[in-house]
Amino acid sequence: MLYLAVLTGVWxxxxxxxxxxxxxxxxYLKSMNIxxxxxxxxxxxxxxxxxxxxxxxxxxxxxxxxxxxxxxxSAKLVTRYS
Length: 82
Hints:
Layout: H1 2-42, H2 57-64, H3 67-81
């Protein structure tokens, strides 16, 4: 009987940890969606070199080069485990 109580306690702790991880990842995914959907699309980095941009194309690429891939990986994790 003690063995069952210990297993139940361990299982409860594991479930709580999983919930915390997924909750954190959902929050992170929301932030990444804001980054990609709002900030990256509105920074004004133009293909046309004659138009003025808020930041240079090189700076934009340095800052945000992996943002979409990170957001997509986060979305896969949330989808898989929630």
